[in-house]
Amino acid sequence: MLKLIVKRLINMIPTLLVVATIVFIITRLIPGDPAAVMLGPQASVEDIAKLRDKLGLNEPIIMQYLNYLGDLVRGDLGTSLSYNQPVLSIIMERFPNTLLLSVCALLIALVIGIPAGIVSATRQYSFLDYALMILALIGVSMPIFWLGVMLVLFFSVELGWFPATGMGSLADGFGTFLKHLVLPSFALSTVSMATFARITRSSMLEVIKQDYIKTARAKGLRESIVVWKHALKNALTPLLTVIGMQISMMLGGAVLTETIFSWPGMGRLVVDAIDKRDFVVVQGTVLFIALIFVLVNLVVDILYQVVNPRVNMDKKGGE
Q1: Nearest to 179, CA basis, from 190, 188, 168
Q2: Distance in angstroms between the alpha carbons of the first and the last residue of the chain
Q3: Average of per-residue pLDDT values in the chain
Q4: The model's pTM
């Protein structure tokens, strides 16, 4: 296990290097001069030139890239052009908000998606099975930005049940805070919810056909015990991989969700930074999300081997 962790941590370095390089190139292709945007339309050419020189934008692109990599090695993501603060401190201020939204969305997806997949698998080819899989297909295909707008129009504008935008604060009461969390969490959870339902159904159908499940039923065990204790445990292995992927996708999907609901997280931070041509914040935030992505995959690999110890045996045998 320790060998696996060390190996994966070493493999993270080239992955993050590739991400950093791609982000560096893309941010330099964003239309507009960051210095001109920062100084405003009334700025003179001389002032813009001085600010470009101060920001290092007049240096050759290769020198900018090498300086950028040197700062990353030292753990310095740079200083925001628009906030005039270290990028890392800005990210750390916004990351808990995105994490809260993603965790709530993941819980909703798991609580609804996995039972839906189990029910669909145990009632294969029934009306309920077809209905749940059609809903899952709709959930996978539904754009988050459209769903977010529809949720706001129906539950906020028409019914007035939930606030349309903002995060809320615990100082205003837990109920108020929770109301602000419901709509963006549900919007962000829909794709993952549908994916969990489909994967759980497929995995459960494969497991419940195994001989040990037939033996458990032959022993007279209740169907609920057979399904939830024996079948589900072995069906979780492929689901763990999907959960890891969905967590990473939620961090990316939060860009649209946080923009629609004005949620003060990293996704909203990236959108605002692009609008302000603050390429330093864009670079740092995307690289931070990439780091979270590879760390989540590492945790999933560890859990995968804990749930299914045969993975370790296979690897040892291969070695």
Answers
A1: 168
A2: 14
A3: 79
A4: 0.76
